Amino acid sequence: MSLTKQYLEKGKDILSVVATQESIIQEVAQLFAQSILAGRMVHLFGSGHSRMMVEEMWPRYGSFPGFNPIVELSLSFHNLVVGANGQRQAMFLENVPGLAARILRNFDTSSSDTALIISSSGCNVVPIEMAEEFQKRKIKVVALVSKLHLDGSTSKKADGKKLTDFADYVLDTGAPLGDAMIYLDGLDAPVAPGSTLGGVLLINCLKGEIANLLHKNGKSPKVLSSGKIVGEQRAKDLFESAYDEHAHLMAKLFENVGPQ
């Protein structure tokens, strides 16, 4: 079997794992939709490559307002790899205790908010502490992890707790321990990771379910759309109105920050 076919077969396995989670996907979608219908936001956080799931949710074509993408460049700016702003520093910083609390110090949250924290291993300090901080604020937390990777990994948090210890719901990407899925003869390290594949499937299943719930409840989402689908002027109008709605929602998160 070719390596391409091997990866596609592994991809089918991941698709099967996601398919078994339909009921929890719908529960989580209901939770997130309730936040958006209440005029609040779903906070999204991922460090390292998990930031890709944040950007998959919002903003991009087929997406809509209601999500607060919390992406720290110091934890996820990989382009330079080495030198200033390199990968070594990012991997170090995502295990610095207390950083999550400093990030959330910027936002005036509400118990009507919800949060999605993405971490393949669920064992790095900052994502774990983000979930912990959200729960302290009475905010429901959904963890998106690779369960096999999480189960086979050791937490870097001093008390040994993992992301799932601070989650009300858990979604599983279906990726294997170590993430990479393809083994080559004579090479001990596998290549071609799978967590992004499972993560994107979960994110877009959620997106579809949430959009449906908003639409049914009289709040049709302002979807970022291609002019080739809805017409050029309609697409421009949707982009402007979606960004305006996002700005108005974000304004609420800054309105009462800090002691009054």
Helix/sheet category: alpha/beta
How would you sum up the global shape?
A: globular
User: What Rg do the Cα atoms give?
Assistant: 19 Å
**Major β-sheet strand ordering:** 2-1-3-4-5
Biggest β-sheet, characterized? 5 strands, parallel
Counting DSSP E segments of at least 2 residues, the number of strands comes to 7
* N-to-C CA distance: 65 Å
**DSSP helix count?**
11
Q: What's this, in brief?
A:
A five-stranded parallel sheet has the order 2-1-3-4-5, sandwiched between helices. A two-stranded antiparallel ribbon has the order 6-7.
Folded structure, characterized:
The protein has 260 residues and is α/β, with parallel strands linked by helices. It is 47% helix and 12% strand. It contains eleven helices and seven strands. The strands form two sheets. Strands 2-1-3-4-5 form a five-stranded parallel β-sheet, sandwiched between helices. A two-stranded antiparallel sheet has the order 6-7. Strand 4, helix 8 and strand 5 (169-172) form a beta-alpha-beta unit. The longest helix has 23 residues, at 232-254. The mean pLDDT is 97.
Keywords:
260 residues, alpha/beta, five-stranded parallel sheet, 7 strands, 47% helix, globular
What secondary-structure arrangement, pairings included, does this model have?
Blueprint: H1 3-19, H2 22-37, E1 42-46, H3 51-57, E2 67-70, H4 73-76, H5 87-93, H6 99-104, E3 114-118, H7 125-136, E4 140-145, H8 147-151, E5 169-172, E6 180-182, E7 191-193, H9 195-216, H10 227-230, H11 232-254
Parallel strand pairs: 1-2, 1-3, 3-4, 4-5
Antiparallel strand pairs: 6-7
